[in-house]
Each structure stands twice: as structure tokens, then as C-alpha cells.
Amino acid sequence: MRVLVAEDEKTLAGYIAEGLRDNAMSVDLAHDGDTTLDKLGTGRYDVVVLDRDLPGTHGDEVCRRLASAGAGTRVLMLTAMSDVRQRVAGLRLGADDYLGKPFDFDELVARLDALGRRPREAAPPVLRGGDVVLDSAHRRVSRGERYLSLTNKEFAVLAQLLAAAGAVVSAEELLRSVWDEHADPFTNAVRMTMHRLRAKLGEPAVIETLPGVGYRIVDPPC
Length: 222
Hints:
Order of helices and strands: EHEHEHEHEHEEEEHHHEE
Organism: Amycolatopsis jiangsuensis
Number of helices: 8
GO molecular function: phosphorelay response regulator activity; transcription cis-regulatory region binding
Keywords: DNA-binding, Phosphoprotein
Helix content: 25-40%
Strand order of the largest sheet: 2-1-3-4-5
GO biological process, one term: regulation of DNA-templated transcription
Protein name: DNA-binding response OmpR family regulator
Number of domains: 2
Oligomer: single chain
């Protein structure tokens, strides 16, 4: 899942970003409303964690524009305001969920996971390809009777491939969705992660490489 954290308190924003990355999410940061709109206009995000009181363009206006654009990005509004009327006002602007500060980080992750399963066409919580099963709710991957220990990046890459259901996913798409905006487009991170993932999945291979095109999940030969 790719997340934009729009929060003007830089320490808090960094804390949120670090924690979400530890939960296999790709995270970009913005510290004011204008930068938030720029990033939303040039990048594709599954969810934006939006501080309501952003400097520059107010968070309410960011939410309103995002909702009217119909981009499909979910909005989790984050604010110090706990008044019920304020929460209702935020939801009516187009926010999909609302979390008041201070918040429990595990709850934030759970809410983002829930929003990520509700986009345009939500991916099911359990993904399958051949005898490979990925359970996103419990963060477990198995092949046959064997459970696999994957890093966050390996888990996220496999989830992207399984969600594509046999369609080809390019290295550029994986770099955008699993890493973040600062990832070097010439990096070999995708190739190296794919190499380790294949080794852990074992034989027969379920990930096919199409040189110059991308990767896809295939049913292994019987």
C-alpha cells in the first residue's frame, strides 16, 4: 500500500512514516497543504493520512479537492480536535475515516489496512497463486504446508504480484507502489528483492520474468 502522510509536525510525521514502513507500506511525506496537493496531483496513493490543520492550503480544502477529483485515494483525517461536530464536518467533506490525536499507532495501522482493502476494486484479504497463499490480515505467507518468513518488501512485492492475478507488473510499478518517491529509478532494488523472494518461494518457480516488461505470477507445472 502507498501512503501519503500530510502532517506539519515533522517529528510526528517522521514517527508515523517510520512505523508504517515497518508495516510494509510505502510512505511519502508532505508538511503543508500546497505540497500535499502537488504530490497527490503527480503520484498515485492508496490512502492519505491528512492533518486537518495543515498550513498553506487547509486540510479541509485538500480533502474537498481530492473528493471532487474522484481519484480513488482514501482519506484518513488526523486531527487534535475531538468534538463530534468537527469529526462529522470532516467526514462530510469527503474523508473516509477520522482519528483524533493522540492516537494508538496500532489503531492507525488497522484503520489504514481497512481503508486499503476498500479502494476502487478492493483486493481480497487472502491472495492466492498456485499453492502460494498470502494472508494480508495476519501477515502470513505459505506455500503448500510451509510457512515463509518474508521481509516487509518481499511481502509487499508478492502481494502486488498476486493481486495482479497473472497480469504483468513492471519493475517501475513495483518501485512506485512498494518503495517511495525517493527510490532511485535506476536502482536494482526490485531485482534483488525478487531474487530473494524466489529463493524463499522455492521450486517450481511461480514468478515469471518477462525481460524488459516485468513480472507475473504463473501456475507451476504439475
